[in-house]
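Late entry, fe (iii) ion complex.
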Amino acid sequence: MTTTEAGAVGAGERNKFGYRPFDLGELHFWRDEFFVHISWPTGGHVMSIDDFLRALQRDVAWDFFYGIVNFDEVIGTVNHYGTVDLFAGRFNDAYRKAELDHLENFETPLIRETFKSILDDWTNDGFDPFASPVETGSPFGDKSGNNTEAVTRRRVTARRMVGVPGDEELRSDENGHPINRMFADVPQDEPEIEAEPGFEGEVCAYNLFKYLSRSPVTWNPSVVSVCKESLYCPTTEEYILPIIHGNDRVEWFVQLSDQIEWKVEDRDTGALRARVIMKAGDVAAMPSDIRHQGYSPKRSMLLVWENASPELPRLIEAGKAPTNPVDF
Ligand code: PHB
Ligand code: FE
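Prediction complete; structure with ligand written out below:
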């Protein structure tokens, strides 16, 4: 065992494939050419390394997100905003009934630093876990180099709005954001602003479609505007959302272009609840007691609208806020 500067990250000696194993509480993680192997006192699990790294990348970059991040139907995390549960089988009916599920709670900095170390050690040169599978290299094989630049990329989080002076920059060829191959037809003009005299410095606008057409990553909502607790988090999607998100609040989706098919399941058991096909212009409100995973056959634009209020999970648990945002 070694301890890094981050403190108490349990990394072992490199195995014959060149990768370090890691311990976090009673959970043990190691990888070979194709898979991650995870074991805990009552069981074990295997996942393809590409799925695992894509899920881990999002959990790290989003700092454990809202509620539950299921890496698949067995492994995942629950964010308690200060501490994080790491679980195996906790939201899986079969594991629960067999009493084989396992859950451990960690201070956020410990699990954050451990996950960052795993992600960095296990990501080979040329593989970008945020990229569409057709726009990146292979994650498989013996350890070869790293891609620290990609796995530590900064997440866009506007303080007020993208494009406001001093806030997040607009995207352009010049600052390294070319138009994605799938969005070659997206108009690139910017809005004209006609401010009343005296207000010239206070009005701002930008072309969100242009902005999104230049996103190099997939399934990575970025905060482009903030109004108190209301966050607009658009994202560009291609292939499969690498996590199954278990909500702790309501989320609104606005499909801005193309199409995404959502599998919606019961948050706690995984039982299938709905299949939602969203076409350009469709709006959906995801209840707070579900989990969902999206499939996007062509690169598409999705607006995720979040209410970031820290009160919400408690209000919903106490029955003081509804699990459904609208009744029909
Ligand atoms: C979600 O879980 O709501 C989610 C996550 C990432 C995305 C889109 C939606 O890119
Ligand atoms: Fe979600």
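The radius of gyration is 21 Å. Will revisit in the morning.
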